[in-house]
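User:
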Amino acid sequence: MEEPVRRERPERVHIAKDWLPRYTGMQVDEYGDYVLLTNFSDYLEKFAQRFECEIKGIGRPMQAATNSAGLTMVNFGIGSANAATIMDLLLARMPKGVLFLGKCGGLKTSSEIGHFILPIAAIRGEGTSDDYFPAQVPALPSFKLHKFVSTKISELELDYRTGVVYTTNRRLWEHDEAFLQKLQQMTSIAIDMETATLFTVGHYNQIARGALLLVSDVPVTPEGVKTEASDEIVTRDWAGIHMNIGIQAMTDIESQGETIKHFRY
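Assistant: Predicted structure:
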């Protein structure tokens, strides 16, 4: 795949090269060309166990590990502020592609726990992305990266949904009827706290990016709000499959994927 184009921001890159190791405990040259992002420590632990690689950054804000094939996984935490931070810090490495393996709430009554969502866009309801682009700029994934991920899902004989995800900074909104009505009017398929930010900051920094989301609850139904017990079931039954899709996609994309071109603005 083609080398990414770095915007001419030497002062930002200089800071990122200092801060990426400080935040994650892993040196810039230890990062691979392709990066999986997660906000769950168990994903990173399973990744490290599977590939027998060391988790760096224990006790720091974020943790990371790179396997022998050069694929890196980073646990960046939860929320749009952390999402923006990691996408800015990755300027230090300028990876060829970044895929977020996140969880989301399904917003359709037909949504089922365990569904995979490959979002075609995200609504910027979180506010963080406003520091990067005007509100009129959409939050979009890199099409060719998502196209490749969709191919891998099909090869594994799994199914997925597409649609628009709403990203918010709010918590405890599940019983706010006005907010639920707003989500319905926007025809969002799911809700999360990171995707729009990752897409927007990735676009700003000209980093190819995507997201594969796992529906972990269906908060539009009274019994569908996530609990610790229900999330444990989702992790037990679906997290391994979720990770496997991401690992296969971001391992094979270098040799099998289409070239992702970057444009200067």
